[in-house]
Amino acid sequence: MSKQQANRGSFSSSIGFILAAAGSAIGLGNLWKFPYVAGNSGGGFFIIAYFLFALILGVPVMLSEMVIGRNTNLNAIGAFQRLNKKWTFVGAIGVIGAFLILSYYSIVGGWVLKYIFSYLIGADFGADKVAYFNNFVASPVEPVIFHLLFLGLTACVVTLGVSGGIEKASKFMLPALFILLIGLVIRSLTLPNAIEGVKFLFVPNTEVFKDASTTSNMLLSAMGQIFFSLSLGMGIMVTYGSYIKKDSNLTTNTFFIIGLDTLMALLSGLVILPAVFSFGYEPAAGPGLIFSIIPAIFEIMPFGSIFGLLFFTLVFLAAITSSMSLLEVVSAYFIDTYKWNRKKVTFILAIAMGIVGIFASLSMGPLSHVTIGGLNIFDTLGFITDKLLMPIGAFCTTIFVGYIWGLNNVKAEVELNGMKFYFYRAYSILIRYIAPVLIFIIFVMGLFA
Ligand code: TRP
Q1: Residue 325 CB less than 6 A away from ligand 1
Q2: Which residues of 149-168 are buried (b: 16+ CB within 10 A; e: fewer)?
Q3: Mind listing the pLDDT tens digit for each residue in 349-407?
Q4: 3 state DSSP class of 76
Q5: Which of 23, 313, 421, 431 suits a disulfide with 60, CB 3.0-4.6 Å?
Q6: Whole-angstrom Cα distance, residue 189 to residue 194?
Q7: Are the beta carbons of 239 and 64 closer than 8 angstroms?
Q8: How confident is the model over 80-98, as pLDDT tens digits?
Q9: What is the pTM of this model?
Q10: Is ligand 1 within 6 A of the CB of residue 289?
Q11: Closest ligand 1 atom to the C-alpha of 319?
């Protein structure tokens, strides 16, 4: 290993990597976004599409990204550049996408911080939890301050480096989050009428097929959600893969991460949606869903405000292990390419994202009149990343790996150190034919429906 590579840091063990990558994958996407996107997309069939896409898109794309990262030992842009100069742009899509995602991700992270503070000072969310949330996000100052605070904290963890910060935080957060979620699922399922929420999630409802636009919207949402939730298409797994040791088994890693991520999303759905139906909330309420339903659940529980504090603290930890991965992708590029100092790069980037995010936050209040194609700035950022950059990034990755770099290279990297690539045949069909065609069709449908 060269000195330069040694300086980049690496994960101290396979399990450390799995936890860190799962830490990146598991975040607001699972806890905050999954329940409301499922709610917006009609439940049942969305969940089926989600599981299916996890297997036929998630597995091959994630494995490919990890292989590229570990093979080159470089950041997202550097990795593609090393393998084939003409494909550098795929890495660039990732770095730009990660920058944009974090600009709005940190706003939601800021909301989580706000709820932590509210619980600390005695939790009063009023009778109308939805109104409380809506008032808060539309106000001009507070959400902006919390957004900047969240980004600042993310930057602090990233400057601690790979194994120091990222790995340590993930090791503690995931098990704690899992246990609390299980407890909450039990609470939620025993609420009156909870079964309606379970039915909503698992009983396929043919309503979504009533016209082409609801169908394609459901498929596009499920695909966007898979990529978002698994941190795909944006060079995260390339960057993290570059820190994996050569004796780690990439196929096992992939299944573990996807399994854990899907489990967490499902648990979150099983906390939120039964409660939504029990309290008579609207499943299609959008981004405010967990922020209104969770305080409502805790209000009627003994020691509810302590659990509320614990819950949002764990959501915060899950969010920060994801946000640091986003910042890391962008930072790693500048560190590798320009040999800049990690601390300096990280803080400069955080400031730049902070500024973009301020506009996005204000777009839910004072700047709500500024719209692009009917979407405010916050939603526009979400649209650009989830529905454009991520599918394009993932599509290009499949083509690159399947046709340009070549499957032999993938196979060789996976099989290093005598590992077995036991589903190589399935992988090669998925990555060359099924994944690119599916991504392309859904992407185009989404643009025109
Ligand atoms: N997957 C994370 C979540 O579910 C968010 C995230 C982190 C992400 N890194 C990413 C999304 C890269 C897309 C691309 O919250």
Answers
A1: yes
A2: bbbebbbbbbbbbbbebbbb
A3: 999 999 999 999 999 999 999 999 889 999 999 989 988 899 999 999 999 999 999 99
A4: helix
A5: 431
A6: 5
A7: no
A8: 999 999 999 999 999 999 9
A9: 0.91
A10: no
A11: 15
What does the pLDDT read at residue 448? 74
Q: How far apart are CA 433 and CA 379, in angstroms?
A: 32
95 lines ligand 1 (CB under 6 A): no
**Residue 322 CB–ligand 1 contact under 6 Å:** yes
What is the average pLDDT across 413-441? 95
State if residue 229 touches ligand 1 by the CB under 6 angstroms criterion: yes
Mean pLDDT over residues 425-442, rounded? 96
Give the mutation target among 66, 101, 263, 388 for probing the ligand 1 site: most ligand atoms within 8 A of CB.
Answer: 101
Integer CA distances (angstroms), 170 to 22, 58, 237, 361, 426, in order:
8, 21, 16, 28, 31
pLDDT at 167 over 70: no
- 321 Cβ contact list (under 8 Å, min separation 6): 20, 23, 24, 26, 27, 166, 169, 170, 173
Between CA 314 and CA 321 the distance in angstroms is 11
The per-residue pLDDT of the chain, averaged, comes to 90
Whether 330 shows a pLDDT value over 50: the answer reads yes
Residue 30 Cβ inside 6 Å of ligand 1? The answer reads yes
